[in-house]
Write a structure and sequence with these properties.
The structure is a single chain. The protein has seven helices and 26 strands. The protein has one domain. Strands 1, 2, 4, 9, 10 and 13 form a six-stranded antiparallel β-sheet that branches. Strands 14, 16, 21, 25 and 26 form a five-stranded antiparallel β-sheet that branches. A four-stranded antiparallel β-sheet has the order 3-11-6-7. The chain is mostly beta strands. About 45% of the residues are buried. Strand 6 and strand 7 form a beta hairpin.
Length: about 600
Amino acid sequence: MSQPSVAVPVQLNYADTPPIAIESRPQRRLFFPVNGQSFAPNNTNQIRIDVNADSMLDFSHSYLQFDFDAGVNAGVHGVFLDAGCPVINRLQIESGGVILEDIQEWNRLYALLCEFQGDASNTNDWGLTQASASSNSAGMNSFVGGNLAGQGGLIDVGGLAVPQDYSALVFGVGSGTPGQDHVQAGINQGCLSGVGWSQPNIAVGTQALTNPELFSNWVWTAAALTTAQGLVERGAGVMSDGRSSYKYNMPLMCGLGMLRKYFPLIFLNQGITIVLHLESGANIGAWVGNGNAGAANPLVSTTALNYNITNVRFCAHLVDLDRAFYERLRSTIEASGGVMTLNSTTYRHFTDSVPVNSSSGTINIPARIKSIKALLVRQVRSDQDGRNNCFNVGQSTSAGLNLYSFRVGAVKYPPTDIAVGYETPANAHSQLTNAGEVFQEVRKAFGTIGAYDHKTNCQEATWRPSYACENNARTMANDGVGTEDQTHIVGKVATDSGLRAMSNNIGCCKQNFMYGFDFEGFSKSAVQSGINTQDRSLPITLEATYNGVNPMTASVVAGAQNNASALRVDTYAMCDIIFYIDATGNITSRI
């Protein structure tokens, strides 16, 4: 009988040493736009950056840098910037006129991925790199009440005669009032999108006053920094110099940007071109008016708001190798067919809508793709797009979703509908009863459910229905009189309409609800292991059912009025992408 073989443990195997690397010389090189130096949505709204060098490009250590400023915008205080990088609407990668990648609504996708895959520690990083509200930016000692009449507070103070200080409340525990519960959830884990401040002509100390500069996603307009009214509203010179610009330092979230291997720029004839399309001014965040009594509402026009992007550069991490290595690599490629192959993951965007007065929807997804790894879905009211006092890019609401499934050709995925678990509510305080199942289905697209290294900024408070009182928006109109309209608006900001001497107030809990399904057969271990809809032109549809209280149906819930609106549904197909570099230096891609 043979004896079992004995292996030397790794700790004792001194012959197992890492290989000696070839000689390399890393360098940092800046690439600048070729079509201008200053960009704006109402002017030059496309940025083109040519990237070419006789080196290897390490995308994992490269990033995009630019300066954002909120412009002049007279009558406007500033803007609470939305999550992620809201100013880039579309990202394209080209080479020699050939489009390699094209991700539309890139900012909405990037914001949702940041929320779903990041956590409180990441929000601190994002406060430094991409103007996101950091997790500890609003301290527990901040006042969150309203003015002396109880009007316009960060939460609904119920008309109390004095402002309310909730600093004594425990994290995640309120007094039973939904608004207070959500404020606690917002301050905890950095889920609050913005903060408000009170009327400046009342003495500080007699009201709840909160400085918007506590939030790292706040940027002042030039008018607010120079006019006398702006100086008063910034705290009568008590605060330090206000920030009117922000420097973004962003990774390129795309197929090439997520390559695990070095990209051989030296083998390309014409390098690559990064093309960035800017988002409209109204959609980049929640703009705040100046709050002057009797003044016209400066936020009525959605086209007047503008911003500027300057000092754009792509900070590339290049690696120079010995010329002999390049020649050996080129010879190896020619011997194996003359084509170098690189693979990664990219996204394709599709949009459709659920019509008004509907309790169900069939969403068409015309994706003709060789390997769909997963489908990810976000949804928001159609009439919210272009509302400049809302967070439009980084927010997504559940909208009362009950059941959903996908149909590819004649096959249903999964065979049984996924139950989101919203109760059909008699009031605005309906709770999620099965949030975990939806969350796990989405998480499968990003890794293994059993792994403990998953992170997320999503929590129960940010997946609730977006009713007014559940979203920290007051159940009154902006002028403090009447019933609040469109209570399913996500990230609602109360702004001065000019009818009452009340201040601007921000107070909304993020909504980062996302749902989807993973189609991979060999997750993370093989290329093109997803579902193939290209060869047979298989149609894809999303079948969704909603409960009785939803944005598509007019209703009054707990005193809050909802105006019916169609529901915008954005679907992102996560798919494999393969890049081919031939012996003549041309590059093409296939998805």
